Amino acid sequence: MNITQLPYIKDIFAFMGSDLMAAVIGLLIIAVFVPLNVAFLVLVERKVAGHIQLRPGPMEVGPHGILQTLIDAVKLLGKEMVTPGMTDKVLFFLAPILVVVPAFVGWVPISFSPIMQIREMNVGVLLIFSFSSISILSILMAGWSSNNKYSLIGAVRAVAQNVAYEIPLLLSTMSVIIMTNTFRMSEIVNAQSSVWHILYQPVAAIIFIIATTAECNRAPFDLVEAESELVSGFHTEYTGMRFSLFFLAEYTNMVIAASMATVLFLGGWFGPFFPGLIWFVIKVYFLIFVVMWVRWTYPRLRFDQLMNFAWKVLIPIALVNLLITAIVLKVI
Amino acid sequence: MNFLLFLPETFLLLMALIFFCQSLWKSSAALNQGLAFFLSALGVIVCLLNLNSSGELFYKAYRVDLFSQLFKCLISLGLFLVVVLGRKFKGITEGLQPEFFMFLSLSSLGLMLMVSSVELLTIFIAMELSSYSIYVLIPIRNQVGGNQMEAAIKYIIFGAAATGVMLFGMSYVFGVTQSTYLADILQKMPLLIKEPVAVIGLLLVLCGFFFKLAVVPFHFWTPDIYQGGANETVSFVATMPKLAGVALLLRLVSLAGTEAITLVQVLVLLAAVSMTFGNLAALVQKDLKRLLAYSSIAHAGYVLLGILTLNSAGFSAAIFHISAYLLMNLACFLVICAVSREGENVTINDLSGLYRRSPLLAFTLAVGAFALAGIPPTAGFTGKLYLFIAALNQGHLALVIIAAVNTAISIYYYLNIVRSAYGQDPDGLPAVTLSLSNRLLNYGFILAIFLMGTFPAWFIDLARTACKTIIS
Amino acid sequence: MTTISDFIPPIIVAQGAFWLMVALTLAGAFIAVTLPKILHNILGLALSMFGVTGIYLFLGSQFVAMMQLLIYVGAICITYIFAIMLSPPQELDQPKKRKTKVIAALIVSVVAFIGMIQMIISVNWGPGTTLTRDWSIKTLGQQLLTRYFLVFELISLLLAIAIIGAIMIAGIGQKRD
Q1: Secondary structure element (H or E) that encloses residue B56, with its range
Q2: pTM above 0.80, yes or no
Q3: CA distance C130 to chain B (A)
Q4: Which of B7, B28, B244, B426 has the fewest CB within 10 Å, making it most exposed?
Q5: ipTM for the complex shown
């Protein structure tokens, strides 16, 4: 078989012909932006938490403590990476590496502004969902290979939770997709030039945000690493750089989820006065702020409440919402 | 689209839905059994009313013709007979009877869809529909410490393997013909049948149905499932999938055209091995259901005799024999279900002196066993006669001789059953009382087996007309 | 303008990526059948499925590729692992494999493999369908609701049966405990 004659080879490897500088810059931006952004978000999280709890948060390093997380990152980099005995060495090593794959791949199809998008794809939305499954797999690998009961329980919870919340997530996304008839990110945004989808699909938007919060294992759905009962869940045994990779993935997934919500429901780059990119960033960070706000305001759910909420509340509502959307679209 | 054509299937779906609703709350067993009786009887009537309809549905993926309608009638009749002969369903956990009936009707639905679909993927999914239901049916048994779970798991594993082989074959067939529609394949296949890939592809597809029919390389599941499943379940599993299996074998083999020499050679080999293995293994069995399992392997071999002729005489003989097999096998299972007191398995010794304990049952058993052995004037004899003649006309003399020798061997163990029922004393085994419906069913089976044996012409004609619709 | 293709020809990258995917598929399949621990086997299966995803991309269907990843890696393999993690560990001894049996199986499978390969190579498969653009989502949708409509509907019935049956069997098992 001659591979070069297959259709699409050109399409798949189109970037090979594009500007070298652009490719290098794209890679650099991701590689630099992702860790820095995570450092920033961790700081924001601690500050938000502090102010919600009527305390200032970290104040020591730099003015108002803004360099605190950078110092923390350096500390984590310098720490020894301990591999406990009796672990499954290969999987223990692979899990933190695999967990960041979706965190990097997820940036590829997101359209930040009309010109700023690494690659437009026909299946952009699906690509992010598909690769997010790899992060669940690596959580499982981490939990199982640690040979620690807390890790294992955390991993089992992670799977149950992720499988359950992926269904309302996909269903609520579907109700936007059948309105726009496309999986392309930029076309979904363009469809919202006059009215944002959140006005047409308020239910889907709320379900989407709840489900992504659960998918990212954020409070009040952070049963996976509930520190009061599980030490810290699936990454209990991880130290140093490996631990920070899990941390990195978690916060990056949060940004990707917020970006998707922005693209799907909040009109992407559209907004008055400012250029598109700024609007996009504002919306993303607003969503992240909301998620943090929720974390420090609401207590953690019990596990059965969590599962029942997904299967008995979110999924039926999402299904009905999808059905109504389909009927309305058919009638119009 | 004319939805009247889809009426038998819709009816079975409705029946499944009714039992699904019944399973949601506590319902009395008598009500469920009554419902099952009534609905399955209605199902037979619906199928008979639809016998002569013909047409195509669902973008030509589903064809309703005399061939499919004939098999649908047989399937609905089989379902009805199973429901009647089970009657109290002693072997089935009482709380799970609504589910049992639901899966029974869903499995029949799958079989009906199977015989009517003329597109490979539809055939595959319909077959899975019936298989999945059976996978679930087998563990429902009211017997502590029985090996029903083991039987179910064996069935699932063997079934999955056979399905995998079948799908692999389908990929070859699709590769050479570029279509999953039988009508398209029929145009290309006879030209390609000399190519090894077409033969292998077709054979691998047939494997899925060899599994259903328990032809030799795919027979391993049979004895264990027969032994592990409840008597009522096994009476279904032992007969109904075989009907659909034969139907699909006929449909697919007819795709090959008349020149498929290699295919026929393989079928000849399988038929000979199946018959011989089944009959020899049956000689030493004590458990009646195990014995019937090995006899079913042998009968699969006999039916292949008709299929490998590749002409309408052989095909109609195969249809006749498998219909007769439905009756005589169910007659034997009727006796098993009646003799078994609490749904346990029945050994040959349990039949001792049956002629004193219940003369009618003993006679039914004798008729069923004679028919399975192929002794005139029963239906089994006539079926075998037609099969042998059809095979002889195609020049398969050696195979027919093997089949005849096998028939002679098989008489030994079938007569052993009858000897146990008539020749031995009851030894204190209690008398078997029969309900009115079961007594009527006994008479029905005896009459039907003799009638089919003595006046086969109308059925053979019907089968031959039906086969005309699938042979190009 | 400098482009990457000036340094490395795209064809070589395409070839390399294709064979990498083939290698992943085969390696995954090999892990899935050989390693003793069941969790490793399933992860091997996931790897194999991931490789198949890549092969679908080369065949020109991004949608099917993504679905493969989403369903086979993201749902099926994870459900397997989940079920295994929830079930109590059973330290069963590996049954002793008899040497003659292994050798016989090996010979049979090698012969079958060679035969199959021979057959596949010798056959004129006819021209494949040519794709002009990525029509996979739209065409798949239309095909599913026309030519394969009945299958599409039957699959939902099949899944319903599987779910009801699984719940029922789980109930039977629970009663016994």
Answers
A1: strand B55-57
A2: yes
A3: 13
A4: B28
A5: 0.85
